[in-house]
Specification:
By secondary structure, this protein is mainly α. The chain has one domain. The protein contains 8 helices and no strands. Helix 4 packs antiparallel against helix 7. The protein starts with a helix and ends in a 14-residue tail after the last helix.
């Protein structure tokens, strides 16, 4: 192990680990491969939105599960800065390849705002997946497509559960066992 890695704080390591989980694509591919042909949305739209939803879900989980933890802001800042740098790299590459300027970080921020607004509009929802799934399907082009609603809800639930498990394994204070479906 390099000296730099040995000196990395547990918060910095958690931020790095959570970022790498957020951009890892295996669960996106897995969910996309299970989207039935009967779904009335374009698979490319689902794939694009799934990856954004995963990033958002990880960032949301940090704030949710560590709500009362004093270092939450530091961990969140590390995570979102890594996302910003990654998005900037994607934006630059896209512009070089297509000649079009796209701000991927702004897209992520706008999606986060949209999901948060959907949650605010439905405070009576029994769990976040009941709101996130339909909002995800709307983003994909058809809010009424049950296959897409389920896919978005499953990504949100899977990502938040894995973040909760990671925080607990890292001995970071995940809130009350951290099941967002109970809140």
């Amino acid at each position: 192990m390099a000296p730099e890695e040995e000196n990395k704080s547990s918060i910095a390591q958690a931020g790095e680990d959570l970022f790498h989980f957020a951009i890892e694509r295996e669960d996106t591919k897995w969910l996309l491969s299970r989207l039935p042909a009967e779904a009335s949305v374009k698979p490319a739209a689902v794939e694009y939105e799934l990856q954004i939803l995963k990033i958002i879900s990880v960032g949301w989980s940090i704030s949710f599960f560590l709500a009362e933890w004093p270092e939450k802001q530091q961990l969140s800042a590390i995570f979102w800065e890594a996302v910003r740098e990654f998005a900037q790299s994607l934006s630059t590459t896209t512009e070089m390849m297509t000649g079009q300027s796209i701000d991927y970080f702004q897209i992520v921020k706008d999606r986060l705002d949209g999901y948060l607004e959907a949650l605010r509009r439905q405070p009576e929802a029994r769990n976040p997946e009941a709101v996130i799934g339909p909002e995800f399907a709307r983003r994909c082009g058809n809010a009424d497509d049950l296959f897409t609603v389920y896919t978005g809800g499953r990504m949100f639930h899977g990502a938040t559960s894995r973040v909760r498990d990671y925080l607990q394994a890292a001995n970071l204070p995940a809130a009350d066992g951290g099941n967002p479906s109970r809140h």
